[in-house]
Amino acid sequence: MIQHSPILVILLILSCCCIGDVRSQQQLGVATIGNNNNAAADVVRNEYYEYNAPGAQRYRRQRQAGPFGGVIPGLVITILSSTLQWYNEGRAVRDAKMLAYAKRKVVELDSISPIDPENDGKLVHVTGHVTTDGGLVDPKFGLFRPNALQLTSTTEAYQWKEKRNERKTRVSETETKVVVEYRYIKEWTKRPIESNRFQSPGHNNPYPKYGLGRDTMTVNDARISNGLRLRPDLVNQIGTTSFRVNGISDRPHHHCTSPVILGSGEDLPHTDDAVISSNKLYFPENKRPSELIDLDHGSQQLDRILSTRIAIVRSMPSPEVGDIRVSWLEVTAPSDGVSILAQQQDGKLVPWSHGDEGHNVYSLFPGRFTAQTMILELIGKSKFVTRLLRFGGWVGSFIGLNLVLSCIPALLKLVPFGIGNILEPLAYIATSTIALGASFGLSLAVISVAWLRFRPLLAAGLAFLSGAGFLGPLYYARWKRSPEVEEMDAKLRAPMNMKE
Questions:
Q1: pTM higher than 0.90 for the full model?
Q2: Does residue 58 sit in helix, strand or coil?
Q3: Over the stretch 342-353, which tens digit does the pLDDT of each residue have?
């Protein structure tokens, strides 16, 4: 008789019990679809079978969340939504009080008069033109914009990108067919893509010659007409605009009117590597600019600051993997000036706040507006945010309560003999309707309690009006009855009095 080791017997039992994690794969093959310029596939399809031990699906279903799986997430979402609504009401009250105080305390400044230290720490309103002395230079490519307040460069590379898509089809109780598809596309991207991790060889991305991504530069000497300095976060509120790098129109043979000035940027070592087209600076990977000029008869030349030249090509051919392109956005001073609401402090404009609530006034509007107009605009924005957050809180409450009540359809689905499949959709409709009404009631309750906390007088007034709406008709019916009603009431009470 063969003696089995107890450890071996235990391992055999565990291997039979843990059937949910027992899988094997059989490779069916790799399908290649399509070709590209690098003689590699655009789409690679990998198909194989997954074998599961008998009962594995049942075991995995048992490990999944039961009918009460949505209760806890629903409660969490509902609580977070109610917290958001509570915070929103407090924020709305604080903003309203701060802006009402700002409307009374704002100080008007003359854009021509010199800076008055007496206004330090006060909310001021000033209009005027924004100026700068030095402009901005892109250190990577040497682009110089003498009137720019902010300059943002975007460097992109034309690269291969891999997209993975997986589909599983249940073939039998023990087999699952898996189809994994790898699709390769070429597109402009702002970050390097490592092609050595691709599943299919032949889609090679050369390492970019220049750093990819977006870089933003802001002047440090921006100031208003009277000399008050603007911080970069205030300059950000002006708004960016793109400019034509080539400075020419689309009409043939129209010469450059505002030539680009490119210096000796740290990422621009060679003068003959670049070409300008479609308002962008291109660095071809496999073609010289001279080759592109031969393809385009309408090309021109632009002078560089170092007496070198960059070609302008009106129509670029199809890009190739490895090509680099650079575009710029800039912030310039509006021609009709700006209007600013901020606090004056030591010759600078900084955020102004009332109290310790954390909210502040720090706004710049392109154009010339009065202080009252700007404050009314800020009030309108605050009210819009308040309504938006109220709606978001209600939607969150509806979703949370719907998840909490989702256990009811899930339980009814378990009713045998096919009855559960009929009851489940009906229960979903009923629970969704209940969640809709309950979310409205919960949102109103949270807002009402929040008003008692942040707006007690208004809440008391609303409570009085609400009570009057309910009790008013009863009072009118009780004390303002006509003589005919009184006579009828006496006749009805007479038999009862006789019985007593």
A1: no
A2: helix
A3: 999 999 999 998
